[in-house]
Design brief:
Helices cover 43% and strands 9% of the residues. It is mainly α and 350 residues long.
Length: 350
Amino acid sequence: MVSSDDIQVHFDSSSFTERTSVGHKHQLQLVIQNEGLRNVYGVVSKSVLSDLKYFDVISCLPPDPAHDLLEGLVPELIKKVVVTFIQEGYFTLDFFNNALKVFPYGKCDKKNKPTCSNTDTLASFKIKQTASQTWCLMRLLPLMLASTIPEGNEYWELYLTLMDICEITFAPSVPCEMVAYLEYLVHGFLVTLKELYPEDRLKPKSHYLLHYPNSLLKYGPLVHCWTIRFESKHVNRQKNRRNLCKTLPKRHQLLMCYYGASENYFDDKMSSSTGGTIIKNEQFCDKIQRLLEVQFPGIQEVYSLSSVELHSSTYTKECCIVLEERENRLHEFMPSHQHSQIKIVCCCDL
């Protein structure tokens, strides 16, 4: 439990007392007897999920990094640093909007391309993006703006620290050794954030970062706990809002039945592709011929495609695909048994 004032001065998880199942049940009973204690304990009423036999509201609800970071802290910090850089004269708001517009987004990022700000004044400037757009913007912002910012700028370093936190948080696999490093990053980030923006009060979503290291140990990689996969179902949302609890599940199951009944839905073969041509090996340069001989010994010809869809993923020119990992030192924070060298194939013009 923590108050709004406490999170402004304490940036270590050990400074707070976490809720327990026993304590929560006791507080719930007190709130039922006296509703005036709701603001004291932060408990409004009993959750209907508590009636489930094997569910506990304290231990069975992992954090959602999509809402905490991509729809909370990340756009808020991007707004702050961009406004600071504009005020410092590093670039203008028009330059920022133009950078978003003309940046050469890759095939995988085009569908999540961030939108430009529709305001001309800093007073009303906001970063209004979806979670996927924010993730795209955060990853590519250094490529857009880094050349305009002096090296060692403390505001830029703060932003890069948040990027490191997000990289660990959204990683599909996280070594245990990285948990301590994440705790170190979060502590330093919150301390610096408060020092650089002392007039701004830290919001609860900033405080939640302190619990991410323990959550990683308890639930595993948090990217597997986020709500993005569930919210992707909104793509097939219906305009009919009558009896949603019946309409949405029914139409969703009909869609799943349609997919399941298709002949190639569970097929490992190619799903679809654009037209292509057959190219003999001798038509390639020596470098490509040697590469083909190593990867596909004895092959005499190649079928060249502009794009191909396989397992619901579309591969086009200028894409990079990880083929395999080999033993080697990749990252100083990875344990020795996880050092690997990643082999990548690039889709390009032949």
